[in-house]
């Protein structure tokens, strides 16, 4: 492959949008004037108008992602996400895709654990056709048998490939061990056992239960005004059910802390996933925890894990940690990849660094650096329409308020050294569940069996 | 990894186009006033104003990549890229990264066959700081074994992660190596592992002193800036860096005309899902005759971009023998480049069966060409993507950096949509006939066991 090889791996953004990035806040707020638009039909969206590029970006999310899959049919939401644009209304799959292509409309859907998301990008002058195709996809998906089988084949091919991929094995084992019997323990894409069981009825039932107006968050960015946005909302989303029928999901806390699970696979690099309890988005200590994670293994290239594991010892190319906040659980998670004979040492260093941070807390200088980074970099998440739309949906999902962008710097500044020391202890003292895939030397499964 | 993307040049003057798509009122306000100038020491600068958000993307692109390495030292371009973060006399190790982080900036670096790039993204007011640091490390790098030795281990782990742990990536390396009989594009960008292991501080410094000089670099600044302020800042920072002397033309050994159909098979017990990939040796924008690369771009789009494409319709939707199929064209390269096709078989379908069906679909395009509606859809989509890309200053910066380090000009970026518009169905068929000749290609099989599938080949 004529690959572009990056110096540093960009962290996988597998989980919730790592909400994190601010700086001259006044100027973002200026560039990003958010209007709350409520349609005559009562549907709300946050709008940022920007006429400088002739396009419109819409992002939206329904609460109720893969955790709403039937327990024995993991993968329903994921299959729905792949099938909504494979024929809707009078248009079969081919016709639907040709309509998209003819107007260069970009439409996509994805299922996460807690949310079912969608996005639309269109040139302004094609907006009516784009909105109509989105409406059809959401309200009249066909789920034609041959398309369902085609997509099922694609999902199975992917799951088959993942069945020998160290990263996938490690991640899936972590989640299934941390959340046994809970929807979070099931893979979003399902399994080789569950996907063949999914029928068109399951897909239809899912859309009926989940695609509802009361659990919907929408952001619209670009060359469109409030009146047109309002009309768009009623047109596209107006005929959805008023209320979702979501199955209740219990709050959960990751289990298996203190265990190290080794899964043998003949690969030169051992892939490590680690995680323990995190902190809820609504917790008053969230921002302090966010800062603690940044110092431990967060986004910039001066974190403690980066320094100790990579720069000083050359043990890994990628090593990171991140806060994961879901609706019913929260974690601090991370990962790395390292050679077989030093896997044990690498995991030990990660655990030592976490203990050290828990015991002595961050330094004043680290706190100041972290605050400066987290405030300063926020604007970088607002320099494209698509990024703004994504941020605005996440702020709504997290229920932070339409003024959050303005308030965020103040929230960061308010965190004291006492806060981060206290929260470091709270966050990093619970022990980790670690999964390792490869041929690590010196690591054996500990805890109750493999 | 950008190699699955169409050639990302594209352009800014997106005025009149296919009536249905392109904004009739003259395109966007972003990226329409790109400036290009050269400092006295030979450094090229490109400025792409985007005043919507008070953010700036600052990139430096050196006209050196893995294809410029000395034989036997593969991986040195990439290793040096890592070592460029190890400090200078003026700014000791870690200071640049700590400063970028404190400013709330993001940074990274990348290496390809023809270029090596470094970038930072920050609030606009920190551009002078970024330029000062970047200019300083253009010639001021200081390396000691204390930092070089651990970093070599980091690179080896990177090779493990990207390649050794991943059978598909290992096959990709083998296909490319088999395709290029003479040209250094056949070497992996990251290097061959046995050669990476031998790289050292002296190799890195020698490579650095040979290629890192203002007259071998392009600085691209995109974001909330004007050309005038960037020029002033550049003169007071980069402008003070002395030329090391001429770097010389980038002459690599040329490929002979390919003669033989080639197959490579990578068998690994860890391959649970077989797949097939093929690369054809084709011209790049820099080496093509006028119109040829544009036709190849459209050809790759019609052949394999999305679910209305020929390969997808034929192999996945109609014959139902594959779960995925597609094509791509790597247009940005200084020398002869690649057009690729790939597919994943359904259970029970062998790779030779899949390959035969793929060959048949390709033969139809070469024999019968493409329809008017296919041509229009492809052009519409490719030109509209240019508009979408204008939403992203970092993407714009990458277009120009790529163009200027792979033998193209700012003007060629600007005129790309117009040139795509003029591609005819005949030109696409001609490109398919000439270049999708199997003798120009290497086909790679990824499978669990080599023997069994081979036996099934009739």
Summarize the structure.
The complex is a heterodimer of chains A (450) and B (458). Chain A is an alpha+beta fold and 450 residues long.
Describe this structure in words.
The complex is a heterodimer of chains A (450) and B (458). Chain A is α+β, with helices and mostly antiparallel strands and 450 residues long. Chain A is 40% helix and 20% strand. Chain A has 15 helices and 14 strands. Chain A has helices at residues 25-31, 76-83, 93-102, 127-139, 145-162, 166-178, 200-210, 226-237, 286-297, 304-312, 343-360, 364-376, 385-397, 404-413, 417-428; strands at residues 5-6, 34-38, 44-49, 55-63, 87-88, 91-92, 106-111, 115-123, 216-222, 260-264, 269-277, 316-325, 330-339, 433-438. In chain A, the strands form 3 sheets. A 6-stranded mixed sheet of chain A has the order 2-3-9-4-8-7, sandwiched between helices. Chain A has a 5-stranded mixed sheet with strand order 10-14-11-13-12, with helices on both faces. The longest helix of chain A has 18 residues, at 145-162. Chain A is globular, with a radius of gyration of 23 Å. Mean pLDDT of chain A is 91; it is low at 1-26. Chain B is globular and about 65 Å long. Residues 1-27 and 453-458 of chain B have low confidence and may be disordered. Chain B is α+β, with helices and mostly antiparallel strands and 458 residues long. Helix content of chain B is 41%, strand content 17%. In chain B, a hairpin with a 6-residue loop joins strand 9 (322-330) and strand 10. Chains A and B meet through strand 1, helix 1, helix 3, helix 5 and helix 10 of A and helix 1, helix 2, strand 4, strand 5 and helix 4 of B.
Beta-strand portion of chain B reads 15-25%
Beta percentage of chain A is: 15-25%
Rg of chain B over CA atoms, rounded to whole Å, is 23 Å
Largest sheet of chain B: 6 strands, mixed
Secondary-structure-derived class of chain B? alpha+beta
Unreliable parts of chain B: 1-27, 453-458
Mean pLDDT across the residues of chain B is 91
- The shape of chain B is globular
**What's the SSE pattern of chain A?**
EHEEEHEEHEEHHHHEHEEHHEEHHHHHE
Strand order of the largest sheet of chain A: 2-3-9-4-8-7
SS-derived structural category of chain A: alpha+beta
């Amino acid at each position: 492959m004529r690959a572009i090889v990056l110096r540093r791996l960009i962290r996988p953004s597998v989980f919730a949008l790592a909400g994190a990035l601010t700086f001259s806040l006044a100027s973002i707020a200026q560039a990003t004037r958010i209007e709350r638009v409520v349609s005559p039909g009562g549907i709300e969206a946050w709008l940022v108008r920007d006429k400088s590029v002739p396009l419109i970006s819409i992002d939206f999310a329904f609460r109720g992602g893969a955790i709403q899959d039937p327990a024995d049919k993991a993968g329903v939401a994921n299959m729905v996400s792949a099938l909504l644009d494979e024929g809707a209304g009078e248009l079969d799959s081919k016709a639907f895709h040709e309509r998209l292509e003819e107007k260069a409309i970009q439409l996509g859907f994805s299922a996460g654990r807690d949310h079912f998301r969608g996005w639309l990008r269109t040139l302004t002058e094609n907006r009516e056709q784009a909105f109509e195709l989105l409406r059809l996809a959401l309200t009249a998906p066909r789920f034609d048998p041959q398309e369902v089988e085609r997509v099922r084949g694609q999902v199975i091919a992917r799951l088959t490939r993942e069945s020998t991929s160290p990263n996938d094995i490690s991640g899936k084992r972590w989640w299934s061990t941390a959340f046994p019997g809970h929807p979070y323990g099931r893979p979003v894409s399902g399994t080789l056992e569950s996907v063949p069981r999914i029928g068109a009825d399951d897909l239809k039932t899912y859309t009926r239960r989940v695609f509802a107006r009361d659990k919907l968050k929408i952001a619209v960015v670009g060359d469109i005004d409030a009146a047109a946005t309002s009309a768009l909302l009623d047109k596209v989303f107006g005929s959805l059910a008023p209320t979702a029928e979501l199955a209740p999901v219990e709050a959960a806390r990751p289990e298996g802390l203190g265990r190290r699970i080794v899964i043998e696979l003949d690969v030169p690099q051992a892939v490590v996933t680690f995680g323990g309890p995190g902190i809820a988005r609504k917790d008053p200590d969230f921002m302090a925890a966010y800062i603690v994670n940044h110092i431990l293994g967060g986004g910039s290239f001066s974190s403690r894990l980066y320094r100790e594991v990579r720069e000083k010892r050359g043990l890994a190319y990628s090593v990171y940690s991140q806060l994961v906040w879901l609706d019913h659980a929260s974690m601090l998670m991370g990962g790395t990849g390292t050679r077989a004979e030093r896997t044990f040492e690498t995991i030990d260093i990660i655990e030592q660094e976490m203990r050290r941070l828990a015991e002595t807390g961050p330094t004043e200088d680290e706190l100041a650096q972290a605050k400066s980074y987290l405030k300063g970099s926020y604007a970088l998440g607002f320099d494209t329409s698509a990024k703004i739309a994504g941020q605005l949906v996440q702020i709504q999902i997290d229920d932070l308020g339409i003024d959050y962008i303005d308030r965020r710097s103040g929230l960061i500044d308010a965190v004291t050294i006492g806060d981060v020391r206290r929260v470091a202890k709270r966050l990093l003292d619970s022990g980790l569940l670690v999964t390792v895939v490869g041929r690590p030397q010196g690591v054996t499964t500990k805890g109750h069996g493999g | 990894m950008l190699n699955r993307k169409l050639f990302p040049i594209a352009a800014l003057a997106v005025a009149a186009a296919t009536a249905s798509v392109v904004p009739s009122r003259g395109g966007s306000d972003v990226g329409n006033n790109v400036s290009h100038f050269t400092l006295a020491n030979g450094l090229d600068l490109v400025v792409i104003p985007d005043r919507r958000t008070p953010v700036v993307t600052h990139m430096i692109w050196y006209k050196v990549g893995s294809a410029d390495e000395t034989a036997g030292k593969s991986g040195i371009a990439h290793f040096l890229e890592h070592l460029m973060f190890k400090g200078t006399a003026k700014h000791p190790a870690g200071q640049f990264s700590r400063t970028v982080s404190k400013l709330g900036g993001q940074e990274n670096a990348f290496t390809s066959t023809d270029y090596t790039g470094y970038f930072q993204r920050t609030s606009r007011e920190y551009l002078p700081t970024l330029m000062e640091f970047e200019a300083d490390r253009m010639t001021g790098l200081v390396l000691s074994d204390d930092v070089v030795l651990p970093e070599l281990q980091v690179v080896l782990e990177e090779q493990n992660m990207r390649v050794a742990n991943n059978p598909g990536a290992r096959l990709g390396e083998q296909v490319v190596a088999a395709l290029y009989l003479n040209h250094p594009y056949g070497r992996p960008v990251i290097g061959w592992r046995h050669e990476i292991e031998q790289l050292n501080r002296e190799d890195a410094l020698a490579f650095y002193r040979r290629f890192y000089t203002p007259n071998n670099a392009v600085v691209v600044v995109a974001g909330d800036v004007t050309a005038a302020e960037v020029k002033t800042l550049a003169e007071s920072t980069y402008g003070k860096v002395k030329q090391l002397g001429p770097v010389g033309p980038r002459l690599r050994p040329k490929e002979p005309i390919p003669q033989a159909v080639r197959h490579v098979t990578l068998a690994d017990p860890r391959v649970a899902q077989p797949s097939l990939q093929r690369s054809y040796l084709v011209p790049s924008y820099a080496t093509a005759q006028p119109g040829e690369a544009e036709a190849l771009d459209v050809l790759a789009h019609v052949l394999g971009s999305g679910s209305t494409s020929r390969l997808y319709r034929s192999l996945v939707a109609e014959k139902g023998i594959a779960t995925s199929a597609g094509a791509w064209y790597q247009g940005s390269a200084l020398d002869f480049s690649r057009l690729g096709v790939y597919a994943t078989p359904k259970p029970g379908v062998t790779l030779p069966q899949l390959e035969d069906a793929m060959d048949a679909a390709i033969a139809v395009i070469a024999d019968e060409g493409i329809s008017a509606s296919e041509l229009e859809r492809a052009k519409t989509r490719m030109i509209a993507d240019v508009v979408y890309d204008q939403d992203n200053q970092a993407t714009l910066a990458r277009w120009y950096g790529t163009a200027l380090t792979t033998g193209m000009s700012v003007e060629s970026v600007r005129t790309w949509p117009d040139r795509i518009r003029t591609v005819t169905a005949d030109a696409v068929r001609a490109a398919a006939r000439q270049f999708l000749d199997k003798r120009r290609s290497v086909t790679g099989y990824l499978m669990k066991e080599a023997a069994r599938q081979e036996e099934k080949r009739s």
